[in-house]
Amino acid sequence: DYRVNSRTLRYVPEESKDKVITDQEVLGALLKVFQALFLNDFHKQTDVVTVLPEAVKSAYQGLLAVQHRRVNPLENRHPQQINLKPEDILFKTLGFSVARATSSVLSAGRGVFVTKGLVPRGTVVSMYPGTVYQKYEPVFFQSIGNPFIFRCLDGTLIDGNDKGLSKVIYRSCSGRDRLGPLRMSDSTWLTPEIHNPLAVGQYVNNCSNDRAANVCYQEFDVPAIFPVELKQYLPNIAYSCDKQSPLRCVVLVALRDIKQGEELFSNYYTIVS
Ligand SMILES: *[C@@H]1O[C@H](CO)[C@@H](O)[C@H](O)[C@H]1NC(C)=O
């Protein structure tokens, strides 16, 4: 296989840079899901909660009370037992869930499927996890035989490989950027137990003649106003700790309604060197 020793980069052509939805809509979707994940996990996050400002803390406590009342009044007495799986949280907040499974494309390995619900057109359906490199940063060794590197339009690279050196680097950057109990990124996408169920975008297969693309990539810079307690669900981390530039994320957005059982297909090209 030519891929074993060569270096490949995934990219989308310049023409496709028009955003399907606004940054505000991407932010809205991520906040909705992350906040629900955080609430679901609230009882396990006491160390995080203690460092939050009082106003933020009480806002969550209010939300938590409302949520528990809505779910089941009996569970209110044992809030520590209300703990849904991340996929269920995604379903509850955006109306669908996605997961990896054997692709419907022969020899494509794994793919990503809508496992439940309906993905309405123009919805954030997935995120592309990985270490983010500025275009001047060295990525040579990580890129050898690695088909998971995504190149953004400005040359920023995202290494979404969950194995080998790529994994080690992500973990070390993620550990570096911790602020006490606050994690600035999610590294569970490197494990079988993913905390952010959207972080499977690197496994979305390319379209083909008989399978049209139903999702597209869209770049998103995490704004400064992003709540610090929700950064623990961001599946991206900067390779260098340069705090000047915002964190780059890439999300996948549905180009049409996608039904339960359908596989996601994007449209990307590769440069081989
Ligand atoms: C992805 O699919 C498109 C359309 O079928 C094709 O032109 C392109 O070369 C494919 N990319 C890769 C990396 O195979």
TrEMBL record:
Alphabetical list of CDD domains matching this protein: SET_SETD9 (cd10537)
SUPFAM superfamilies: SET domain
Domain SET: 96-269
Protein name as it appears in the record: SET domain-containing protein
Organism: Jaculus jaculus
Organism lineage: Eukaryota, Metazoa, Chordata, Craniata, Vertebrata
